[in-house]
Amino acid sequence: MKKAKDKKTKDGKGLLSNCVFLLRFAYGLHRPVFFFKIPRIMLNIASPFIPILFLRLILNEITVGRDMRRLILYVLLLAAASFIKDLFGSMLDYRVKSHTEIAVRKIKNRLGELVTEMPYADAEQPGVRDLIARAEDGTNFTQVFDRISEIVTSFITILGLTALILAVQPVIFLFVALVVVLRLFADKKNRRLWEERRPEIIRTLRKGNYNLNVMQSIEFGKEIRINNLQDWLYDRTDRLTDDYLHLTKRYNRDMQRNNILPTVISVFQEGAVYLILAYKVVFEGMPIGDFYMYMTSVSTFSESVTAIVGSLSSLMETGLFIRDFRYCIEIAGKSKTGGEKPIEGFNEKDFLLELDNVSFKYPNTERFILKNVSLTLKKGESLSIVGANGAGKTTLIKLICRLYEPTEGRILLNGTDIRTYSYGDYADLIGAVFQDFKLFGFSVRENVALGTASDEKRVRDALERIGLAKKVDGLPKGLDTNISKEFDSQGIEFSGGEGQKLAMARALYKNAPVMILDEPTSALDPIAEAEIYQKFHEMTEKHTAVYISHRLSSCRFCDKIAVLDGGEIVQYGSHNDLIKEGGLYSRMWNMQAQYYVG
Questions:
Q1: What are the sequence ranges of the domains in the chain?
Q2: What span, in angstroms and rounded, lies between the C-alpha atoms of 544 and 430?
Q3: How far is CA 250 from CA 133, 190, 257, 493, in A?
Q4: What pLDDT does 6 receive?
Q5: Which CATH code, of 1.20.1560.10, 1.10.760.10, 3.40.50.720, 3.60.10.10, is assigned to 16-188+259-332?
Q6: Which CATH class is domain 352-439+513-596?
Q7: Which residue has the higher pLDDT, 38 or 163?
Q8: How far apart are alpha carbons 360 and 409 in whole angstroms?
Q9: pTM of the full structure
């Protein structure tokens, strides 16, 4: 992945290109910030010339002209110009700040959306998680716009001051050019230094932030207190903070070392300019007002050149973050580059889901989690996938759900590779309750309906069928009771078993043609699990269903059973057939039969 990213960067997606990309991206999300920022840039361009021109007139009038009325006029004009500039500037700053906050929030929201659109197999990789953490820094596009604003302002200011400085002493440009060259060289070294150190710094920061979130999250509160983890977590977080500070301190020290020579030369440049102008005052009769104007012009010119160099360097650094943001968009786009073929004929009698010699291994690993798995599932059939922990059951479900793509082999729907279908259409076919299901900190109603306009009758029916209706009706706000107390003191904390039932209720509400239960009842005892599987089977008997459990409570009523061992299907058939056959399934069933047979 890293090589691909580096190649794309070299192939034209340079840092400045990425900055332009983010500005266009931001413009598409929130244009008003640009309408107020551009006048602010124009005001910044005019600002240095106001004191330079008026103070020259005022000083020359004091030392040479001595016309009081003209002097008062110049002072009043300077005051008026400064007042208008400051008033207009403050009004623009307020608008820019307000719209910038909106734009940044929209960009961050878009990044969150992009993460949800990423292929699941990519999004769960540690390297991509680091990438996302770095991209979050890039979403603050104001750094890009501010640096570009400074470059434009400084460049136009330099053009305006060039004629003034050339009229005094062209040799001054030699000093300025020397400082510019040295600073460009130093900034290039600093940029390389940052790109080299950045991955380790960001990774350490992300680990520290995770520890802080664990310490502050109520989700981990019970585990922390019952196991006395306070000091242990604090020490871990403190060590990561020390590591982060050490890394940044070392980076800042090396960066400052690179800046020593340009800083020294800059001091000599300033001294040389003073000497040249002082000579003209003493020996050539230059007026004090002109001395001030030229001295200020040279100083402003030098500051503007330095600002361009610094802003360009900062722009390059910010471009690194934007490159990561842009790459997140590319990863998210992979989920949309699959087929767009609509799914048709799902309800036809010939519906068939086939796994054809499917093998899978995680990226950058050699061990296959699944190897040469083949099975079929017809419309209305039920399949139970069993095996010991680590046999590959959940991985198989993720492949069927199209969260992963097979390393080898194909998954076919009605004879067509599922990757050619629209992902949205395919996802609509599946209602899944995962082993690590999550309840959102939203209302009960929203947790059941999940993003759809909730039909209260259907929500209540799903809760009733799964045995949670009475519990929910007794809550303070009924269906509108918030799950967790994170945002509502009257929120409800469901027990593990109740949470699992609620997750199953949302699958019933979705009413998808294919129902998948991936060990969602692990918090229940074996008898309760067997009962709820049987009940769920009865409620979904017209659906195609897949059940997973290391306990065999779902097997007796399923049409087929696939027994996984070491990533391979070692047995496949009905419950009665596999019992007669003997082997792994028979041994597992006999060990657990005491829980299911009265």
A1: 16-188+259-332, 352-439+513-596, 440-493
A2: 9
A3: 22, 12, 11, 46
A4: 44
A5: 1.20.1560.10
A6: alpha beta
A7: 38
A8: 9
A9: 0.66
